[in-house]
Amino acid sequence: MRGTYVLLARMPQNTQLEVGRLGILKFEEGLYAYVGSALSGIKNRVERHLKSEKKMHWHIDYFLTEAQVVNVIYGESEQRKECKIAKNLAKSFPSVRGFGSSDCSCKSHLFFSKNGNMEEEVIRCFKKVGMRPLRW
Asked: What does the alpha-carbon distance between residue 74 and residue 56 come to, in Å, rounded to a whole number?
């Protein structure tokens, strides 16, 4: 199963984290949506993100040391669609500049909602790019 996924994760309190080469970033309490691709396998990638013990490799690894994943939305595809979904989410939510987008031209792949209402918009974004969204 290959495709694109969005981790919905709650940051329980305002915090600062060192995030690899991005340095120290401030994160507000609230809900975040992280858009990623897994053309080598969604199951393995998401399961890796859900582990508490892992090597810090991606920006999201640092973020998840403090935030808790509350849901995962994913869709199957042989093509990379993460940037299209990220660009659609950017129309509705503020983002964390440079987060998760060091290998593309997107402003970010991490989006924030203070009120915690993101899931419906994430699902709409999957549908906009021609994907069938599924819940983990």
From this structure: 23
Residue entry with tokens 């994160």: 27
User: Model confidence over 93-112: pLDDT tens digits?
Assistant: 999 999 999 889 999 999 99
How many other CB atoms sit within 10 Å of the CB of residue 8?
21
Residue 50 to residues 4, 82, 92, Cα–Cα distance (Å): 16, 19, 26
pLDDT, one tens digit per residue, over 67-87 is 999 999 999 999 999 999 999
Please state the pTM of the whole predicted model.
0.96
Beta bridge partners of residue 78, listed in sequence order: none
For residue 6, the SS3 value is strand
